[in-house]
Amino acid sequence: MTRLVPLFFKAQAPTSDAPLSRLLKTRSADKQFVERLLDVVFSKQSLIAAKLLLPYDAQKLINKVDKALDLPAVAEIRRFRRRCFKYLYRISGHHRLLPSAYKLKPGPRRRGKPIGSGGFAEVWKGVYNGQQVAIKVLKVYETDNLQKIGKRFCREVLMWNRRPHPNILPLLGVSDEDFTMVSEWMDNGNIRQFVLTHPDVNRPSVLLGATDGLIYLHSHNLIHGDLKGANILIKSDGTSCLADFGLSTIMSTETFTFSSPTATGGTYRWMSPELLRSEGSEFPGKSVHSDRYAFGMVIYEVLTGNIPFHRVCNHCAVIKKVGEGIRPEIPVDTPPATHRSGLWAVVQRCWAQEPVKRPALCEVRRRLSVAAEMWDADLRQWGSSDDYVRVPHSTSPSEDSSDAESESDLGASTYSLLQSSLSLEVPIQPVGEVESEDDLEPPDYVYANPRS
Asked: Could you name the domain of life of the organism this protein comes from (predicted)?
């Protein structure tokens, strides 16, 4: 069985687009390749042999299996396709090598200084093949754990590159520099910046794209793990997409130290109560439930223009409040559509202390869709959104409450408007409970070749 890998090396990749069933009936070299691929990916002995390969041979094997994933004969059978990807995932992580097609040559050129720096990485603006790109360089300080980080990095890049979706930021590739990822540059910035600079934009509608991206990840048993407004970017057409998918998985507190004084990179305000508990020595695992909680905070952030707990600048105070079940206040002076649609109610359910009580994202999406329709109707009735949206925008946490009284007066002045709007009869379709995102059919472009 250990000869399976060398035999696979000798097989030529198929040139036919014939389906697997027809290909196996022929006596061509294409049939030989597929048969040997089947033997390799379904054999435990071949996996052991692959892990013992020298780097040069391991790279050849990784390249060959990666190309095989794009063949119609492989994509046709779901079990075959998944097995090939699992095999590639394991040997790539073990050898800390990515398919050669993922590497950008020549590498992208950085411009100026970093435009952003967080606990996880530095972001640079650069150029690749005449196209503006974002260059993300992970921060690594403990060299003792480079092997573990390299393994996770390779595996997460594979997951990212093999899960193309319109609402997930496309990965263009990696550079020869260690732990550097290159993606498309988004001129509109992140979702919070976008809604603050475009006051008339339909905010619930902008959130729909990010919701679809997250539903897609969860339907494939993948967790984002670092949801916040800064990690949701806006495309040129105004749709939102998730960025930094998988980044928090690579940067576990068990692997290395961040530049920030906290292992979570300053994302406490979006983190669920179970992730902030200090009991036990192990870092709690992130889940679809913690993603749902964080997405509820993202909705708050987009609708109000404020980060969660924007009046509290001390991280410890935020953690204490969340642990005690305290959540951001729902302002009454947000657009009436957000109240009448039940959107704020479902956001509060996303913030439930018990993870299992948080609603499925399918339900959140339905509420967002209803709110988006009502938002447009309100805009037609009242004119510019500035006429009825008066939310103070805070760019950073502050303990200054000197303007609290004026904000209170503002809320009182708009309360009557809100009450009158609530009395309007607007037909709302009942929203049923959805147990999980797995009820959705996954899109048919899963495993499509992102480089084609």
From this structure: Eukaryota
286 in a known ligand binding site: no
Q: Give CA–CA dist 104/60, Å, rounded.
A: 17
The whole domain housing 130 covers 109-184
With contact defined as beta carbons under 8 Å apart, do 123 and 408 qualify?
Answer: no
pLDDT at 8 over 60: no
What CA–CA distance (Å, rounded) separates 335 from 389?
Answer: 6
**Which of 19-23, 71-75, 118-122, 359-363 is modeled with the greatest confidence?**
359-363
Chain centroid to CA 207:
13
Q: Which of 139, 161, 184 is the last residue of a domain?
A: 184
Cβ-Cβ contacts under 8 Å for 329 (sequence gap 6 or more): none
* Closest of 127, 122, 151 to residue 137, by C-alpha: 122
CA dist 433 and 173 (Å) reads 39
Record the pTM. Answer: 0.74
Same domain for 123 and 75, yes or no, is no
Torsion angles phi and psi, residue 437, rounded to 5: -70, -15
